[in-house]
Amino acid sequence: MAPSATLGLKACESGGVEDMRRAAWNILAFALAVRVLLALITAPDDKSGALLPWFNDEPSHLNYVRYLDQHNRLPVQTASVQDGFQSAQFEYYQPPLYYYLARPFYALGQALTLGRELYWVRLVSVLFSLVGLSVIYPAVLRVLGARAALLALLLAAFSGVPLRHGYLAGNDSLFFALICMQFALSLAALSGGADRRLTIAAILIAAAGLWTKASFLLVLPVYPLALLLAPVLPGQKPSPRLWPVLAASLIPLAAITPWYLWNYRHYAQFLPMSVGFGPLQPWTFGNFGERLFLTANYFTRTLVFPYEGLWGGLWDKIIYPLEGLAFLVLATVGFLRLRRVHPEMFRLSLAAVGLTLAGYVWLNLHYAQAEARYLLSALPFLFCLMALAALQVQGKHRRLSYVIIGVWIVLPWVGVGF
Fold first, then answer.
1. Is 43 helix (H, G, I), strand (E, B) or coil?
2. Residue 42: helix, strand or coil by DSSP?
3. Do 163 and 132 touch, CB atoms closer than 8 A?
4. What angle, rounded to 10 degrees, do the helices at 343-366 and 314-341 form?
5. Could you give phi then psi for residue 76, rounded to 5 degrees?
6. Residue 119 has pLDDT above 70, yes or no
7. 406: phi > 0 → left, psi -120 to 50 → alpha, else beta; which?
8. Nearest to residue 327, comparing CAs of 140, 141, 136, 160?
9. pTM of this structure
10. Residue 156's pLDDT is what?
């Protein structure tokens, strides 16, 4: 199947691909500059004045890195976010890969700019974020064409969740980079390009993902599913899929087993959810209406504009619901279009988004955790869907697709101060 031909994309004509490739590099360069700027102008804590508000989880992530640097061993969490927020130690239950990788930058910052180590750890997140962004354009290009690839990259670079968490100290930056890599490898496998090297790379990425955040478990089946969905191309000899599928599924689980055993030893849980989030906060008949409103409201705000200190005013009461509705409409239209033009990627996207949403719903039903960043594991697929929906604009008005995506990204910023 040639999805780019089905979409009627004409970027391949008259050197269009080269123009798109240059545009992609420009987006990456601008994304780097914006993230460095935001890292510098975001407040380091709730007491410092700055152009952008602090992120209240950031001190706890920094404390994790500081603990590794000072004690050279893993910390054991003794207080959840519900009862130990002020101590900023409620991220200790997280897998340690990000924090070990950030540790040299923390030490460098301590040596060069004592007291400003946070900014050096933020730099690590910027670098991880750029690594993730760098694989999106070539991955989408091979299956959906240049225009869809450019729009997906634009969304990944500048929309609320990946931008905000692409420069803050925290493991979401590495997590998103690994999710983008898994996304790219899955699309490569789906295009019939799977081989031993690709599967080995997918195994390593999945293992790293599990050592970064437990929620990578939700999308661990995505690459094996891509192997199963990949069509046999004309003239291509069918290759055995059982062993690569089993290897990509089981080896990452074997690699993370020592961490699960460490958790059980210290917390009597393989996945210490209650250690991180505290006692259960379930939905009941009595709080159903309130929890539903709070979840919808907080999810929409953190999806569209995850800068809590800048919320407020009449503008965001109008714009945020409209932007949330636009996100839902674009994703739905994109799903319908993808089903027509690339059935295999439609099934893969449905699995990635469905598994992520199932995890989000489960978490929210048990704890008051409604942030949109819990969709990070599905965002590359969702951005592709939004790009496909915007590409419904064809012919002489096809540049409007960039306007649609650009407005969705920029509009929340316009309302700051209104």
1. coil
2. strand
3. no
4. 140
5. -115, 125
6. yes
7. alpha
8. 160
9. 0.93
10. 97
